[in-house]
Amino acid sequence: MTTCVSDAPPPCRSYSGVSFTFVSDHLALDFAATVAWRTTQHKELLAEPEDFAQWAAEARVVDCLEAVSQADLSQAHMLREAIYRLSLAASEGEPADPRDIARIRQAAARPPVRPVLQALGQVERRGGVQEVLATLAATASELLGGPDRLLIRHCAGEPCTRLFIDRSRAGTRRWCSKRSCGSRINAAAYRRRTREDEQA
Ligand SMILES: [Zn+2]
Predict the structure, then answer these.
(1) Centroid of ligand 1 to alpha carbon of 179 (angstroms)
(2) CB within 10 Å: which end of the chain, N or C, has fewer?
(3) DSSP code at position 60
(4) Helix (H, G, I), strand (E, B) or coil at 154
């Protein structure tokens, strides 16, 4: 269980031991990426309530999230999957499921986390699970309801299934992260080329 000392900067964190990355260039897509390798090993990164608390703090949605229940976690999973399906549909030009639209609308109807400026360089974000889910649903609404939905891409670094925003000027970003997926694919291509050269 996380213990929050909410008025002590820097924000407290829960430590579930899971490592999260934020490389999608959008909060909603980073949230969707908390299931890794969806089509192969399907790795759930938010397996425990503490994982969600840690993710929300690391994502800077809220300073600290206390007392997350299993029911809260299930709600977070449902919202996340709706965001993922709709983002994937947007990236592939497929129609959206109206039930997913309704799920996001419902979550976004609640009050979000309200940032309160404390000083230059210091903002306080307090809220509970419902406020965090409302914030995530609101940011997903902005993404999926606006022009940036057309910039959603699927990482080319299989088996990575991460979605990201392609903000490159030429619109040619292929990987969620050059450092992980990009370098892995380039290394594989290099090994393949070297092998072919040796055989030639
Ligand atoms: Zn990737």
Answers:
(1) 9
(2) C
(3) T
(4) strand
The dihedral built from the CA positions of residue 94, 99, 101 and 104, taken in this order, carries a sign that is: negative
Copy the structure tokens of residue 191. Answer: 């090994």
Q: What is the Å distance from ligand 1's center to 26 Cα?
A: 14
Question: 32 φ, ψ to 5°?
Answer: -60, -30
Q: Assign 3-class secondary structure to 16-53.
A: CCCCCCCCCCCHHHHHHCCEECCCCCCEECCCCHHHHH
pLDDT average per 10 residues of sequence, the chain (200 residues): 48 65 96 94 94 96 95 98 98 97 98 96 96 98 97 93 95 89 73 70
Angle between helices 129-145 and 70-92 (to 10 degrees): 10
CA 145, 150, 151, 156 torsion: positive or negative?
Answer: positive
- 3-class DSSP state for residue 96? coil
Distance 166 CA to ligand 1 centre (A): 13
